[in-house]
Amino acid sequence: MPATTRPRARALLVLLALSWGAIGVACTGDILGSTDVSDTADTSLRSCRTGRYPCRADDGGILYGPADAGTIESDAPAPAPADAGTTTLDAGTPTTAETWFVGDFETGDLSQWPDLHDVPPGGAQIVTSPVAAAGSRYAWKCQVSNELTSGTSVTGDSSYAANVFNWEHERPGQSTWYRFAIAFPSGTSAAFPGRFTPQTWIFPDGNAGWNMLFEFHEPAGNDGFAGFPASPYFGMHAGRLHVRWVGGPRDASTWLYWTDDRSLVYDHWYDMLFHIVWDQTGTTGIVELWVDGRKVLPAADWPAHFPTLWRYDDGSYAPVWQQLGHYRRSPGSSVAPYTDTLYIDSFRVGPSLASVGG
């Protein structure tokens, strides 16, 4: 079925008591148990997009979320480092012949990507500035909005460029490297037009919002595969960079969390480098992450190996669907309409660090 009509998996939010330190949380067991804070019966944790689940109606005229659509209420933008206008990615250095996928927008459009999830044809904005690195000509200006204006990429709360479902390089035994640059405009810099507002507030139903940026979507009941309760993703939590990783068997699943100990830097190209060994058994699976060259995953309290894929009862793996862009909780009528903008550049996937420009 078309990407715009595929059912999305419910996004499960775990509200952690955070101290502002490097946080890695590991837990195993039945996520559907009585202590689970993401009660699967609570439809408020599922997507409100396109009316698939009920959204909270306006609560007595009170608007939740950013008090002013032009004001970012999370951490004040941290001072940008001296090289904020560039990233360690070098678009001028060719990737090796082994590079499996390049989605760097250098075609001037999104044609490199096999699927556009909620991005209407011709609606994506490919820009010549800002770009992440010397030699890069184009970047994707990714926007989501509930303002219903003509100047945004989409008129919903999701905008994803996606690779193929059950891609051969995201199956058990594959060792896969991913690299891309991403920037979050503050709304105050002419060099990075637009603004990004992390969902740091509590919605009227008592639950937090979310900002997913790089997701490995579980099957969600699509293509003949049974769905699972959540997807691994990189995104935001409490206004900071965040990773949630889930996998393993349904009745003994592993849930791992990391939240950056540093405030989000706006108007800065982040260099994101992931290395994932795909495994549904927990014997060889790993997730490594470098942010601007700083290794942050695995976190200190993460296990050495863990399942990076969901596992069915017969031992087989549940495929994933790689998606890049922005998916946020629909603000609904309880939040003043606002548009989120972020920039993505230089995405590539391969079997080694060298293959992704390392």
Structure overview:
By secondary structure, this protein is mainly beta. It has a single domain, classed as Jelly Rolls, CATH 2.60.120.200. Helices cover 0% and strands 30% of the residues. It has no helices and 17 strands. It has strands spanning 23-29, 101-103, 115-117, 125-127, 139-145, 158-162, 175-183, 211-217, 233-237, 240-249, 253-259, 269-277, 286-291, 294-297, 310-311, 321-328, 339-350. The strands form 2 sheets. Strands 1, 3, 6, 8, 9, 10, 11, 15 and 16 form a 9-stranded mixed β-sheet that branches. Strands 2, 4, 5, 7, 12, 13, 14 and 17 form an 8-stranded antiparallel β-sheet that branches. A hairpin with a 2-residue loop joins strand 13 and strand 14 (294-297). The chain is globular. Residues 1-87 and 149-155 have low confidence and may be disordered.
The fraction of residues in strands falls at 25-35%
* Number of domain units: 1
CATH class term: Mainly Beta
Low-confidence stretches: 1-87, 149-155
Order of secondary-structure elements: EEEEEEEEEEEEEEEEE
What do we call the CATH topology? Answer: Jelly Rolls
Helicity level = under 10%
Which class best fits the helix and strand makeup?
mainly beta
Largest sheet: 9 strands, mixed
Mean pLDDT: 75
The coarse overall form would be globular
CA-based gyration radius: 19 Å
Which quaternary structure do these chains form? single chain
Figure out the total of helices: 0
Taking the alpha carbons of the first and last residues, their distance comes to 37 Å
Topology, number of strands: 17
The CATH architecture classification is Sandwich
